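chain below, 405 aa
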Amino acid sequence: MSDVKKVVLAYSGGLDTSVIVKWLQETYDCEVVTFTADIGQGEEVEPARAKAEALGVKEIYIEDLREEFVRDYVYPMFRANTIYEGEYLLGTSIARPLIARRLIEIANQTGADAISHGATGKGNDQVRFELGAYALKPGVKVIAPWREWDLNSREKLMAYCQQHDIPVDFSKKKKSPYSMDANLLHISYEGGILEDPWAEAEEDMWRWSVSPEAAPDAPTYVELTYERGDIVALDGVPMKPHEVLAKLNELGGANGIGRLDIVENRYVGMKSRGCYETPGGSIMLRAHRAIESITLDREEAHLKDQLMPKYAEVIYNGYWWSPERRMLQAAIDETQKNVSGVVRMKLYKGNASVAGRRSNASLFDESIATFEDDQGAYNQKDAEGFIKLNSLRLRIAAGKGRRQD
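prediction:
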């Protein structure tokens, strides 16, 4: 292992990655560079600096990536109305390519031989981090401690901390029974009683939202202004992408919006039960479909919907930096040139519903769609030939005695 002289570690400052710092130093006899990203997880990241320094780390990177995260990753994903397996808004998945990219960039800046992460050998994140790393630096060495060491329980990790005098300031506190991951788009929960798919999630587990039953009795209205498929203002006030998402999280959480309990199919092959809170993203998804409903051509919209499941799978499985994702993104972004306007959303007791939509690029023609006198804008007699032509193959088959049941 002497070929590794320096390694860049994705470092949270928590128990696992603090142990990894010392383990890398001992096992590989190498220098460790730590990288901590603020992507809106709701916790202070600066304390990670003192923890890293206490472990002898000399090069420490702590970066606020919230704006880049939402602008360059979340927004492009939402242009596609992306959901995985019909429900999951990919809150964890979409954060990994950004972290992988910065790991590689820091490795290049510092002359590091390898990168490392704290993802386990059972989950999707190991795949996402490493696929991204290899796509951006094919020859990079990746060290995944959870696939190498035998510290496979919290008790063993704590014993390692005591043996090596690793300062973990929360080591004596009661640990949450859940494995959680948070960023500005969502917070996820796994483990504990959630490993039983029949068990209902406990109410005190949720961090960002009130229950729909406890939400206010009066609805909240908010107007989202879109330009080329992206939200640029709320209630007429221009905002940066990360400010938009933070505000929608606040509004959605206060109205009980965005809770999800699913069993998903992991890329590594197993089924996993998880709970998610995505209040702002849930509002964004519904609103974006609303503005598209009046600005996209029918066939354009339908083809886009057909592409979405593949696009979602590509992101979920960790292929953000792949040629297929870039190809799909180019097609999706092409559809967004006229997706501009305003959507009014009604937030009420767990529901985000559309209360109105308008656009200067709208394809909705009231003079044609009306049930009243359309003044000749649409000749209803034309429908007869349209129907007969489209029924031709059905009439031929029936005439030949083909069974239709």
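The chain is about 40% helix and 20% strand. The mean pLDDT is 94.
thats it, cya
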